[in-house]
Each structure stands twice: as C-alpha cells, then as structure tokens.
Amino acid sequence: MAGQKTFYLETFGCQMNVHDSEKVIGTLEQQGYARVETEEAADLILYNTCSIRDKAEQKVFHRLNDYKALYKKGKRFGVLGCVAQQEGERIFERAPYVSLVSGSASYRKLPEMLVQIENGATRVTGLDDRQTEETFETEFTARSNPHRGYITIIEGCDKFCAYCVVPYTRGKERSRRSESVLAEARRMAETGFTEIQLLGQNVNSYKDPEGKRSFAELLTAVGEVPGIRRVRFTTSHPRDFTRDIVEAIDGVPALCDHVHLPVQSGSSKVLRLMGREYTREQYLERIGWIKSAKRAISITTDVIAGFPGETAEDFEETLTLLNEVQYDGVFAFKYSPRPNTPSLSMPDSVADEEKSRRLQILMEHQREIQRANYEKHVGQVLETMVEGVNPARGQVVGRTSQNKTLNFTTTQLIAPAPGVYVPVRVTKTFPNSLVGEAVQ
Ligand code: SAH
Ligand code: SF4
Ligand code: F3S
Fold first, then answer.
1. What is the pTM of this model?
2. How many whole angstroms separate alpha carbon 312 and alpha carbon 88?
3. 166 CB less than 6 Å from ligand 3?
C-alpha cells in the first residue's frame, strides 16, 4: 500500500458505536484512507470508545498505553466516541501522543479534522456541546455485514437517569426525518439487505421532525419495504413504550418478535432514585401489553445491581420481577459510579462485595428462568437467518426472529450461505442457545 494513507479503527461499546464506526470508516475511505487490520500497519490509529462503566473507560486508556510506542514511528492516534466527549481536552494531558479527540456529534467534521492532522496539527478537537442539533448522516457507510444493517433513527438522550453518562456524552435527543430513514431502508433493500435494525439510545422516544410518522408507524413502514424480512429496534425506554408498538408487531410479519425493555430495578423506590420515570407497576403493565400480542414476543432487559440505596428487600423485588416477567435474557451490571452523574453524590451504604454478590445471585437466578424458557422451543420449527458456520462443531450458526442463537445441522452437502433463511426444527436447548436440524 505504498503511498496510500492507512487507518486502524477499533470499536468499544454499544451498537450505536458500532454503527458510528461503520460511518466513520466510510468517511475515511472517501477521504482516500485504506483500512488495515493492525495498529502496526496504520498511519492513523482510532479508538471509538465507551464510558458507560468504569471498566469500559479504563480499557481505552490501557489500549492507548499499550501502543504509545508507535507514536515515535510517526503514527497518529485519535480518540472518538463517549470517552472523547466526556474527557475532552483532558485526554491530551493523560495521553499526550493523541492528536484527535472527537465526540460522536462532531463526526460530520471528520474530513476537515483529518486534513488538520495531515498538516501536522497535534491537538485537533471535535467537541460539540450537548445542545447540538446535528445528526451524522452520510451516504458513505461501510456496513460490515451485507445482509443485516443498522440505521440510527434517533441520537442522544434527554432522560438523565441518575447513574448514566450518555446524556453528557451523546448530547440531546434528536431524531432523523422518517422520510430519510425510509429512503435509507429502501436503498439497503435494493442492495440485498434483508434485515434492518433501527437504533437509538431510546429508540422509541423517536419524534419525526416533520411530524409524518410516529415510532410505531415508522416501524410499520420499514417492515413493509419490499425485500425487508426482519426489522429489529433497540433500545426501548419503558416510559415511552406505547401499546401501538405491540399492535405494529401484530400487524407486520417482518417486525421481529423481540422487545428489549431495560427495567434496571424491580423496586419502585430504587426506580425513583434512579430517575427512571416509571414504577414497577407501570413497567409490568407494558409487559402485559407485550404478552397479550398475537405472536409470542421474546422479552429481554438490563438490570443494575447495587445502586446506591438498594436494600436487600429492594434487590429481592428485582428477583421477583424476573420471575413475573420470565425474561429470555438479562444483561446484568454492577453499579459503576460515573463522572458528572447525580448518583455519584448519593449516599451508598452497599459494600462493593455485596454488590458483586447480588450480581452473581441475579445471574444465577436468571439462568434457571432461561433454561426453562428455552426448553419450550423443543419441537418447534423456527425460521433462522444463517450467520456463518462453526466448523469445529459441524454446525451452521443462525439466529431466530426472537434473536436467539440456533445452531443447526443440515443434510445438504454445502452449508447454506450467510444471509439465507432456513426453517429449523429445535431438538435441544441450553440457557443461551438452541440446537436443531434444518427442515428439508
Ligand atoms: N438507554 C437505555 C440504556 C443504555 S446504557 C435505557 O435507558 O434502557 C445500557 C445499559 O448500561 C443500561 O441499561 C444500564 O443497565 C447499564 N448502565 C448504564 N450506566 C451504568 C452504570 N453507571 N453502572 C452500571 N450499569 C450502567
Ligand atoms: Fe442512560 Fe437513562 Fe438515557 Fe438510557 S435513558 S441512555 S440509562 S440516561
Ligand atoms: Fe458506551 Fe457511549 Fe454506547 S457510553 S454504551 S458507547 S452511548
């Protein structure tokens, strides 16, 4: 690649970050850069970072430290994403060999920022304030999977949960025009995509700036784009979860039978301390709507263990909520104190070991619920989208509409290609995956 400018990009964090990276890669390629697979081979090394929990943030600084020797070889470093927005110019103090610090709201300015770095600038920043109205829309998105792709429909967050950095790292809530979302969905369908995943920190807080479509109407419209067989959306906020979303899933077969609805805690008291703007009862009412759908809709959630002020009784309420809802998946996290957030200054009498213990109990409890839930699939035939093969096991790896992993065997000589849909009969289950045989 003599003479060609090269970059290496590594992504940490959520799907929004993964998709931002696809847009950043597209933008860099447009600017004449070629992507390479190792730090050593790159002129420009970029980390798209996450600061949701302390561990995620530390990972970035470790990584920067591991590779700082490369700076002497003339390489340049850039920090993008949520740590960049959160720490801003302080990153230059902590890691002086970094030349670029940019939050997600400034990526539209990447082409100019790249030119500045190429001209030798050593402290280039893109740090829009929280009030920015900008969204990052580009036709140069380098999607990594040719069958399944993301579309961000709403950026930022205005909810300010007491523990969370996102409102500070991603700016205020701003939605894309539904016409623009639909145009992108149609373009994707024309180029062979069959699955679309709509993204937003609170995807269902979507508000069409032109007022043409509600979130449920946008879901329906994307689900009706010719060629699109699956539509997913994540993450839904319980406060903004309305009944018409379930009606849309009922009415449009392409809308997947899965809702991720983070609860965080089963105790109304803790939910109030967190500033979640719903009670246990209101959350369970929404679960009731989802469970009364015509199709069985899989429900998953996020839970925080050991939030400041969480008593043993509060924690018990989270366990009973898991029993009531019967989730198909729970992402459980130990509370992590984060900079700038209100919960940092809340009195916290829960010892760290107790937080870890609660996290452990929660995960074990959920594992048994999931074991029983997954077992119910034995004998069912589920449509499965092929993702790849596991040669060691001689299995094809697929995913169901409910977003469950289904590993299966086939009597065909050639395994079905990624992106193909195959009906599979479930023969065996684990707490986190299904096993089956392709139905010929
Ligand atoms: N907008 C989504 C969540 C996005 S962050 C929602 O409101 O549901 C993803 C998850 O990280 C959260 O659901 C929460 O469970 C977890 N999380 C966020 N901040 C955290 C913190 N300070 N400590 C531990 N977990 C946290
Ligand atoms: Fe964070 Fe709450 Fe916003 Fe979710 S809704 S991103 S948890 S502040
Ligand atoms: Fe992390 Fe930022 Fe996403 S903090 S979870 S990368 S919004």
1. 0.96
2. 39
3. yes
- Homologous superfamily of the 381-438 domain (CATH): Nucleic acid-binding proteins (2.40.50.140)
- Cβ–ligand 2 distance for 157 under 6 Å, the answer yes
Cα–Cα–Cα angle for 29, 32, 35, rounded to 5 degrees: 45
CA distance 166 to 159: 9
Task: Pick 133-374's CATH classification: 3.30.1360.40, 3.40.50.1450, 3.80.30.20, 3.30.70.270.
Answer: 3.80.30.20
- How many residues are given for the chain? 440
Low-confidence ranges of the chain (pLDDT < 50): none
Give CA–CA dist 198/235, Å, rounded. Answer: 9
pLDDT tens digits for 18-60?
999 999 999 999 999 999 999 999 999 999 999 999 999 999 9
- Token pair of 379 as six digits: 């004998």
To test ligand 3's pocket by mutation, which of 10, 79, 82 has the most ligand atoms within 8 angstroms of CB?
Answer: 82
Nearest CA to ligand 3 atom 7: 166
Q: Which two tokens stand for residue 198?
A: 């709509």
Whether 202 lines ligand 2, by a CB cut-off of 6 Å, is yes
